[in-house]
Design a protein that fits this description.
Blueprint: E1 10-17, E2 23-32, E3 38-40, E4 45-52, E5 55-67, E6 78-91
Antiparallel strand pairs: 1-2, 3-5, 4-5, 5-6
Amino acid sequence: MDSDKQCGRGFAFSAEMGPDGTFSNIRWDYASLGSHECYPASEPVFRSGSASSSGFRVVLLDSTVCRWPPVLDSRYPPVRPTDRTFTVVIDLRRNTVPPQ
């Protein structure tokens, strides 16, 4: 499953960060990775994460049950077990102010 199509409704976490920027001891405050086509069948599992002065990256894994075929039609019940990987990247290097 392509997570570009399956962006969940959001998550929040707290973690400890080592001197190298690597996250550890993740504690979920909130995780809603469901979508119109897929429903979580397990809690998300933290795989990796890090932060630096230029942004951060978090990788999550979960198991889900998805509609098949993958169409936005609620008449198709979720029947297909799927493992997903969510990669969230925040890149602070991008300039959001238009040049003048």
